[in-house]
Write a structure and sequence with these properties.
Elements lengths: L27 H15 L8 H15 L4 H10 L4 H10 L11 H15 L7 E6 L6 H14 L6 E8 L2 H9 L1 E3 L8 H7 E3 L7 E4 L1 H4 L2 E5 L12 E6 L8 H14 E9 L12 E5 L2 E4 L1
Parallel strand pairs: 1-2, 1-7, 2-6, 7-8
Antiparallel strand pairs: 3-5, 4-5, 8-10, 9-10
Length: 295
C-alpha cells in the first residue's frame, strides 16, 4: 500500500511536478531555487544541510495558503507583485532566538566604557544614537535601553534614541508590544525589573510589560540589511549579533563596510560571540573579543 498522500503503486520518491500532489520533500532543484531567492532578498545563505529545515518551514506557508506543491508556492511568490508573501516567507525562514542580557559582557562594555567615553566627550550633540540591527522579538534593544537609561540618570542633559530593526514582521510585532512571559526575564537584574517592567495581573498574570517610559526611547521598524543604509556617520553604537553567521563572506564584507560608514568616528560595533570579522577587510580597531571601534 502506498504511503499517505501517494497513489497506489508509487514509491517513497517524490512524484513528478505534474501530479500536483503535496510533496514530502523539496527536490534539490527546488531547494536551490528557494535558497537563491532567500539569498537575493535577505542575504541569508542556506547551506545544503538546511534543506530539511527549509522543507519544514516552507510547508507552513503551503498549508496556510492551501497550495499543494512547492512548485505552486514558488510560482505564487513570483506572481505576488505586492511582495507580502515574500515577507511571510522570510519570516518563517529567518531564525529568531534571543533573550534579555544575552552575551552580557557586551552590556558591561556598553555601560562601563562606551557610555562614559561618549558623555565625557566635548561634542555638541548630547544625544546618543544606538541601533539594534537584528532586534528579533525586542529583548536586545530593550536591554540596551535599560543600560543606557540607567547610566544617563547620572548624566543630566543627555538623552538617547534607539533604532531597532529586523527583517521579520512577526517578531517586530511582538517587540512593539513589549509583553513577555515571566521566564524570559530571568536574567534581568532586580533593579531593572522594578524600574522598567510592569507585572501582569488577572488574565495577564505570568507576564510582564516593558514600561512606556522605556518604550518611548525605542523605535521599531522593518529593515533589510541588504538595502543601503540611510545613516552616514550618525550612529554611536551598532549591535549586529549572531546574524552574520547566516551570510556568506561576500555579504559579510559588504555589511561590515556599511556599518563602518554608518558610525560616527569613535563609534562602536558589537557582533555575536560566535562571529568574527578578523578575516575580512575593514577599518575597525578591535577593543574586545567581539567589539570594534571606528577610528
Amino acid at each position: 500500500m502506498g504511503k499517505i498522500g501517494q497513489p497506489e503503486g508509487t514509491t517513497g520518491q517524490e512524484l513528478p511536478e505534474s501530479f500536483g500532489l503535496p510533496y514530502r520533500q523539496l527536490t534539490d532543484v527546488q531547494f536551490q531555487k528557494f535558497s537563491a531567492l532567500v539569498y537575493e532578498k535577505a542575504g541569508i545563505y542556506l547551506k545544503p544541510e538546511k534543506k530539511e529545515l527549509l522543507n519544514a518551514r516552507l510547508g507552513k506557508r503551503l498549508r496556510a495558503l492551501g497550495l499543494d506543491s512547492f512548485k505552486s508556492y514558488y510560482d505564487y511568490l513570483m506572481r505576488d507583485a505586492s511582495g507580502d508573501e515574500l515577507v511571510q516567507m522570510i519570516d518563517v525562514v529567518s531564525t529568531n532566538f534571543t533573550s534579555f542580557f544575552r552575551e552580557s559582557a557586551h552590556f558591561d562594555l556598553l555601560g562601563n566604557r562606551v557610555l562614559p567615553e561618549i558623555t565625557s566627550s566635548n561634542r555638541r550633540k548630547r544625544e546618543i544614537t544606538l541601533w539594534s540591527s537584528a532586534c528579533s522579538s525586542g529583548e536586545e534593544p530593550y536591554t540596551m535601553a535599560m543600560v543606557v537609561a540607567g547610566f544617563l540618570e547620572q548624566h543630566p542633559g543627555w538623552t538617547f534614541r534607539l533604532l531597532a530593526t529586523d527583517i521579520s514582521t512577526k517578531v517586530l510585532a511582538q517587540a512593539q508590544r513589549g509583553v513577555y512571559p515571566d521566564e524570559r526575564i530571568a536574567k534581568v537584574p532586580s533593579s531593572y525589573l522594578k524600574r522598567y517592567f510592569q507585572k501582569g495581573v488577572g488574565g495577564s498574570r505570568g507576564y510582564v510589560k516593558v514600561k512606556e517610559g522605556l518604550q518611548r526611547h525605542v523605535t521599531f521598524s522593518r529593515f533589510n540589511l541588504m538595502h543601503e543604509f540611510p545613516w552616514r556617520e550618525e550612529l554611536d553604537v551598532i549591535f549586529c549579533r549572531n546574524v552574520m553567521i547566516y551570510f556568506n563572506r561576500e555579504t559579510q564584507q559588504e555589511l561590515v563596510a556599511k556599518f563602518h560608514r554608518a558610525l560616527v568616528p569613535g563609534g562602536y560595533l558589537f557582533i555575536g560571540h560566535s562571529e568574527s570579522i578578523t578575516s575580512l577587510k575593514h577599518d575597525f580597531t578591535q577593543v574586545d573579543a567581539t567589539a570594534y571601534q571606528k577610528r
